[in-house]
Amino acid sequence: MDILSTLFRQQSRKIGIIVPSVVVSEKHTDTLEITEHPVEVGAAITDHAYKKPAELVMEVGFSGGGSLLDFTNTSSIGLSLRLSPRETYQQLLDLQSLRVPFDVITGKRLYSNMLLKGLEVTTDRTTENVLSAVLTLREVIITSTTTKQVADKKDMALGVTTSAVQNSGVKTPVPQNSSMYSSAWQGVKSSLSLGK
Q: Is residue 171 part of a domain?
């Protein structure tokens, strides 16, 4: 491959900052978990559903390092087209061991907050000088937490059994609604109890 084809080559798929030479297949999995609870009679009931983390399985290939120019070997002076299969494999292992979420660009969509869950590398007589790998990537759902100030146990009346102080807002008492029937019944009950 010469330098012009290298410069004008468009790469549309990325795993973090790693760009595969070829993507053989991509398997996208998005699952919605629907809860089920058995009841005494009838079918199981469902009260909610939640989305599970997205998973992506990519079968990719990385070509071995080579010269930038066809007519001379530039890799001997440190100018090569790509990393060697060993260096690329090490990059993937480093990406996995870092455990820092990264973005993945596929032909179908952009994934954020992905981690490299599994890395399978096959070497046989046809893949000796290239890196052929199956990558299993999984989305990490990131949440944020907050801290609340609570009273010390010694300041609570019952210590361990007393719940923490909670801010539940301003409470305004509301008079109970009563119907004419219940008002009349209360009047009858009170007149009967006075007559005794």
A: no
